[in-house]
Amino acid sequence: MNITVWRAIGAKPWRFWFSRWPWLTLLYLFSSAMLGLVLLPMIAMTFVFIPLWGLAVGALERRRLKLLGFARIENAHVRVGADERHNWLNIRMTEAATWRDVGGLFATLLMGWLGLALLVVEAVGLAAIVAIVASATHGPFRMNISAGVSVEMMPSDIWKACAAGLVALAVAAYVNAILVAGQASLSRFLLSPRQAELERYIERLTRSRVSLVEAFEQERRRIERDLHDGVQQELVALSVRLGLAEIDLEHAAQSGANVREARQAVAVAHDHTEHALRSLRATVRGIHPAVLTDHGLAAALQELAGRAGLPIELDATLVQRASAASEGCAYFTVSEAITNAVKHSSATIIHIAAQTTAHELIVTVTDNGHGGADETLGTGIRGLKERAETLGGALNVDSPPGGPTMLRLRLPAATTLTAIAAG
Amino acid sequence: MRIILAEDSTLLRESLTSLLEKLGHTVIATATDAPGLVDAVALAAHENRLPDLVITDVRMPPNNQDDGLRAALHIRRSHGTVPILVLSQYVADAYAAQLLSENDGAVGYLLKDRIGRISDFSRALETIAAGGTIIDPEMVRHLLARKTGSPIESLTPRERDVLTLMAEGLANQAIASQLVVSAAAVAKHIGSIFTKLDLTPDDGHRRVKAVLLYLNT
User: Fold this and answer.
1) pTM of the full structure
2) Which residue of chain B has the CA closest to A297?
């Protein structure tokens, strides 16, 4: 365990005097004095940058505290991501931690100059004693300190002076240590993160994760809409034009023209167009089913059940509309569960139950397959699990060998940011 | 036929207009969004010249959701049995169920893919205008695949085939030629379907109701 400067001061005096602490505190005091000496003119010249000086000195002080045996204190500032770097100054200027750093800067300045003064007094005193002792070894010595006050020293009194010097050193060690410890405690108080700041930081992270998922959902809806409004309509129009061409060619054939090859070519083009429409529809459904936006989860699950390729019992009569992010997560989870059941579990029937309670959307998918599904294997399920957790819900997969496999998804019905903040 | 067409994609609206005109119909008005469609029909009604058929896209402005479908339902409620064909990019029970459960006949729900098969499409237009019901084959396949635990399950595969073709709006004779059986055999299958689905002759519109059973169970 780290011994801090305060514990060292509280130890027995002779242990303190002969430890490393007098030297460490002297070093600290000296560095403080130097800092004060350097910072004062610099700050005086560039006082508009005081908050920046505060940030820089704060960072330095956090490191310097380790010299005195304190554990590293956490940075109280919000971490600024690469995407927000342009906004760095703005974020820093609005943080309480920055202004505490500025307070810390003034504390460093004040304590630096106090330390400097103390060091000068100590140095002068020590030098005087050494000088007096050195001079007295050559015979009686007399020094005028000021008018009317003088010091007289006999060679026989040298031991007294030495004793006085030692006492001064011993006292100075304590004075230094106490000053340094006081400064350290003040710095720790000013520079440590507040509990509320840590909580805000976590809240910020949670919000940004939720808004990421919601943005993702929105983006999928946009892509679906773009495909629907654009290329799907164009393909339908193309198919209509090909149909018209087929009619024209049919008329031409009826009036005796040889259009066999042209009719064949158009028919093939028409088939290809229809195929493209079908594949595009399947792709769009995988991105975001329109029915989910229009009619909600129950209708979308019904549609999903109709395409499953295996009998599905769907109980979704108690489902109300939930947030788009939750509905999307539930839909794709069920879709993945059905795919897995069909592919891996040799199930013959799947039961899907979905319901909304006051605050939650709960979906269970159970199949009668042979189980043994390892959730760590399916990247699809793992991604959906993360998505559910991000939204403040949970996805559990229970699949003992021999079956049945049961998947249970719980999501908040509303994933608005306020709901997260309140929860 | 006099047709009102609503489709927000300019390209497709123009292609459809020229197709309909080629088929000998008249496009009396076009609309690019749902309110435009409602207005066009209201205007025609005001002049006492309701269209013989309304064709609308499901997804249209202003909300770009199922605005077209809602406009269709609104038109049926306010102007009686105006035949309506709804075109969709997707197979979605929710869309079709809404349309079919509120209306007995003279409605259709087709994937846009079908338009290019012009003779089939033309036949579908005639069927709807004549009061028939057309449901996209993919939709019917989809519904047959989904239903478990409903009376539909008790149908034999052959009866299912017949029901599928009924849903597409085919008459008995056409079903018979498609399945290569006699018209009498088709009538027998249909009778058996009605019995299994518990539809009595008093129900009226039994053909439509048989199809609706897929949607509502």
Assistant:
1) 0.64
2) B94
